[in-house]
Amino acid sequence: MLSRQIINYTRQATPFGLSSVQLKILYYLCIHYGDIIFQRDIEKLIESRRSTTSGILDTMEKNNLIKRTSSEIDARSKQVILTDYSYELAKTMLKQKEEFDRALEKTITPEELEIFFKVTNKIKNNIMNMK
After folding, report:
1. pLDDT tens digits for 30-74?
2. How far apart (Å, rounded) are the C-alpha atoms in residues 34 and 56?
3. Which of 31, 41, 73, 122 has the most CB atoms less than 10 A away?
4. Shortest CA distance to 78 belongs to which of 99, 53, 97?
5. pTM of structure
6. From CA 39, how far away is CA 77, in angstroms rounded?
7. Contact in structure between 43 and 49 (CB atoms under 8 Å)
8. Tens-digit pLDDT profile for residues 51-63
9. Cβ(87)–Cβ(33) under 8 Å?
10. pLDDT over threshold 80, residue 131
11. DSSP secondary structure string, 82-121?
12. Helix, strand or coil for residue 80?
């Protein structure tokens, strides 16, 4: 039910068919706006190989969502930054996400939320240790 609701909400919140991975990257770049972000940071974020990440970023660059520029810090790496267009888009989506989160948490106490996140983190760790 939650997954379905998130998918429906995401479809309404995005102007054109962004994938969940692209949304995750936009969100990450928005909350880290002004920080220096490299492709390798995105690889870790989405837990994918360099070639997969490169393809995703190529598409995002083609759609004017990001720019990749040479880094002044590390000449071997490209810095990934939001375009002005996608920054405004990401800010709008961030507000919508916060509204969605508030709606989900409406009848949940802070203590219940804390317990929920403790348990889900334990489940996540168990899954990660199964490999």
Report:
1. 889 889 999 999 999 999 999 999 999 999 999 999 999 987 887
2. 21
3. 41
4. 53
5. 0.71
6. 7
7. yes
8. 999 999 999 999 9
9. yes
10. no
11. E-HHHHHHHHHHHHHHHHHHHHHHTT--HHHHHHHHHHHH
12. strand
CB burial of residue 89 (10 Å; 0-12, 13-18, 19+): buried
Contact 56/22 with Cβ under 8 angstroms?
yes
Alpha carbons 80 and 29: distance in angstroms, whole number: 8
Compute the chain's Rg from CA coordinates: 17
3 bridge partner residues: none
Distance CA 65, CA 122 (A): 35
